[in-house]
Amino acid sequence: MIIGEPHTQKPIRWAMVGGGRGSQIGYVHRSAALRDRVFDLVAGAFDIDPERGRAFGVELGLAADRCYSDYRALFASEKARPDGAQAVSIATPNNTHFEIAKAALEHGIHVICEKPLCFTTREAEALQRLAGERRKVVGVTYGYAGHQMIEQARAMVAAGELGEIRLVNMQFAHGFHNEAVEEKSAATKWRVDPKFAGPSYVLGDLGTHPLYIAETIVPALKIKRLLCARQSFIKSRAPLEDNAVTLMEYDSGAFGTAWCSAVNAGAMHSQKVRVVGSKASVEWWDERPNQLLFEVQGEPGRVLERGMPYLHGAALVDDRIGAGHAEGLFEAWANLYYRFAIAMEATDRGDDRRLASLRYPGVAAGVEGVRWVENCVRSADAGGVWVDYR
User: Which residues pair with 246 in a beta bridge?
Assistant: First the structure.
């Protein structure tokens, strides 16, 4: 149980690229990284406008000379300092992720990156190779995966409590973009522009979240082939989709579905993952993240609650407060950030045994997310046909 003790020998010196004034996700990153005293913000290139970025960094308490004009100046200057940044979080538009992550790794800096990691599987695999060569961690912020009831579902599958896994149903289908909100929102506008967002909108922006959660709960399942159909109900968003449905066949014979949408009018988030076995099913919903629905065939359904002693031990490790108190998104992100910190410290001291015991969304998860989006787009653009997963 987390009750405020440090998890690393000393805080990791940490920088940010992007995430400046007015950035909601930048605030989430900082809140998560600083929650458990495992990171210390020492530098940043927060804004495309250098003066605005510097002013913002100074407001955060940073020295003005460590608030840089861009990521290149940040990495070069921090590498030259004995107290330079050891890690960086990338909270910029999608089209910049690859070049910034690559530059950080080349300067010997650990990376925490917003998803998608990049646009193509080839780029993602290049980052994976570079991270291995430089012995640096690449973490991907699938923030919802830090909720501990996902660990409960994973433990139940591993213990055979669901039986043979047959179906995995995933969805992330909100309704907040059921109109062309990007006409008045810069934060949304770039997400529906392929120049900045890449080859997809909701598949990459939303769908990769439940995809990673499903991979966490049932890690043995591997996609064999898939079929995807995508639509642009707001026509100005074409060729990017605001709704998509994907069917997946796994190599075990199990079957999966994923519904990704930003036009599910009236819905808040509707991110759910349901895993169906031959004996029982579990379902996790991000609007009720402290609970896990457990349904055994022939028995009354039950709701498992966070923090209770009847849970598997893996589901109790990340508890921050006793059962009955709600934990939310900031706690979930903080759970990932402290795991990133432990992984970075273990990597730097060559502690492979400690690394093997950690579960966090690393570079392999980033590669898989990019690969899934790439295959979904390939299938949809061919007319919604089955494609072999590669």
Answer: 228, 258
Say how far apart CA 122 and CA 374 lie, in whole Å.
11
**Cα–Cα distance between 57 and 46 in angstroms, integer?**
7
Whether the pTM exceeds 0.85: the reply is yes
Pairing of strands 110-113, 138-140: parallel
Average predicted confidence (pLDDT) for the chain: 96
pLDDT average, residue stretch 176-199? 94
Which amino acid, residue 315?
A: A
Q: What is the pLDDT of residues 53-62, one digit of tens each?
A: 999 999 999 9
Same structural domain for residues 241 and 262? yes
Same-domain check for residues 138 and 157: no
First to last CA, the chain: 40
106 and 193 inside one domain: no
**Which whole-number Å values give the CA distances from 30 to 103, 183, 208, 289, 318, in the listed order?**
22, 29, 22, 22, 19
Residue whose entry in the numeric block shows the structure tokens 């653009």: 381
Quickly list H helices, 36-84: 50-59, 71-79
Is the pLDDT assigned to residue 6 strictly greater than 90? no
Whether 9 has a pLDDT exceeding 90, the answer reads no
Provide the domain limits for residue 137: 12-144+338-362
- For the chain, the domain total comes to 2
Closest by CA to 358, choosing from 306, 312, 327, 314, is: 314
What DSSP designation does 222 have?
A: -
3-state secondary structure of 60: coil
Q: What are phi and psi of 62, to 5 degrees?
A: -85, 155
3 state SS of 358: coil
Q: Provide the edge-to-edge strand list for the sheet that holds 165-173.
A: 302-305, 291-296, 280-285, 271-277, 165-173, 255-261, 243-250, 223-231, 387-388
**How much of the chain is in helix, strand and coil states, percent to nearest 5?**
40, 20, 40
Do residue 100 and residue 151 come from a single domain? no
pLDDT for residue 370:
98
Mapped onto helix, strand or coil, the DSSP state of residue 273 is strand
The CATH code of the domain that includes 70 is 3.40.50.720
